[in-house]
Amino acid sequence: MSNDLSYFYELIPLHIRLTDEERQTILTQFPSPKLPEGNTLFTLDNEEAGSKISQRLLVNDFEVRLTRTQKQFLKLSFSNNSGMIDGKMWDNNGALEKNIPLLESNAIFDVEGVIDSYNGNKSIVVNQLIPVKDQLEPFSLLPYTDESFADLTIELISYLNELDEPFRKLAKETVHYFWDDFRLVPAAKGYHHNYLGGLLKHTVGLMRFARYILSFEKGHIEALLTLVQKVEKMYKAELYTQYRQGQDSKKRMIWNETIDHLYKMIQGAMTYSDQNPNYNLLIVAILYHDIGKILEYDHAGKSFKAFNFLYPTANKDALLTRNQAGIGMDPLGVLVGHIPYGVILLTKLIEQFDISLSIEDIHQLNHCILCHHGLPEWGSAVRHPQTLEGYLIHIVDYLDSRYENADK
């Protein structure tokens, strides 16, 4: 079976040629999650200001804020599988004192309120929160990717199958071991791929960029320049749209302040122009670059398999009392972060699967994980990439995270 698609403004061709039998074999080993059918989705965009609503929603997070007149109110974030929904509750008749304990001990609520619109942004003014004790089904109350889980899975595994041994064994065993969480976890809380299946889609996206760069006929530097030329073109289109819409335009500028950074990173990659990128190192590093997010984020449906794997002798009673709800930061995971977790997981999984890699390759992989954010002020654990693959993984991560928002 052949799927001929494209990515990144139709610049990157995608050719996934597998038989039906090969596709089914992959999906048997790496099954897709079961998705809800026939849901009628509530979205704020479809509601008029002032209209009353009654909806079952999942609470992502909440916090007490102060108005300009120093009165307390609750700022709330809800979700269903159409996306995130903002809300607020005024402190009328002791509403905060009554509802904060409910929010601390429950995840699903029947929400009654009124639609508010302020500066073009809609939210719910909540009048009543009624806790619901039903079993929480993540895909019913959390947003998830609109791409096919099966197609993304098949594409991911087909790329991993191209690896040489022992990289192929390391990559596929890793995905298989953490598959239930890997296919589920978001890649961010708010900026990009912030939905169930986000990490899967983002990982595949990076691999698409990487394979394009490594297979470009004129070489990887020419490929990088071609990509940034496309970014320049789309940035000009954004500027023109803003110009035509005027200063009141609310359209988000996806490629603003990106051009100089991309050229700086390409210049860094050019210092290794005498080298050819290593497909095995780059693809495995991409698989691991954000895998630590299975620990860094918390959400309904997340298991604690990764915590159990890394800390088998720890007392984990606190995990059993978790009130998992919407997409948020794991209170433990945020203390470490996904970048260090990626290195720790790589180290332990190499031992777990008895993988024989050279000490140089292990450090190359670790370096790619540590530097994929590019700059220390963006969370990179090193000052700047020090290998060709280090520059490449940052560039493809940078491009894919922004293209995700442009693609929306």
List the helices and strands and how they pair.
Blueprint: E1 2-7, E2 12-17, H1 20-29, E3 52-66, E4 72-80, E5 83-90, H2 95-105, E6 108-118, E7 121-132, H3 138-141, H4 149-160, H5 167-177, H6 179-182, H7 198-215, H8 220-245, H9 259-270, H10 279-289, H11 293-296, E8 297-298, H12 305-310, H13 317-320, E9 328-329, H14 338-352, H15 359-371, H16 388-407
Parallel strand pairs: 5-7
Antiparallel strand pairs: 1-2, 3-4, 3-6, 4-5, 6-7, 8-9
How would you portray this structure in words?
The protein has 408 residues and is an alpha+beta fold. It has helices at residues 20-29, 95-105, 138-141, 149-160, 167-177, 179-182, 198-215, 220-245, 259-270, 279-289, 293-296, 305-310, 317-320, 338-352, 359-371, 388-407; strands at residues 2-7, 12-17, 52-66, 72-80, 83-90, 108-118, 121-132, 297-298, 328-329. The strands form 3 sheets. Strands 3-4-5-7-6 form a 5-stranded mixed β-barrel. Strands 1-2 form a two-stranded antiparallel ribbon. Strands 8-9 form a two-stranded antiparallel ribbon. Helix 7 (198-215) packs across helix 8, helix 8 runs antiparallel to helix 9 and helix 9 (259-270) runs antiparallel to helix 16. The protein is globular, with a radius of gyration of 23 Å.
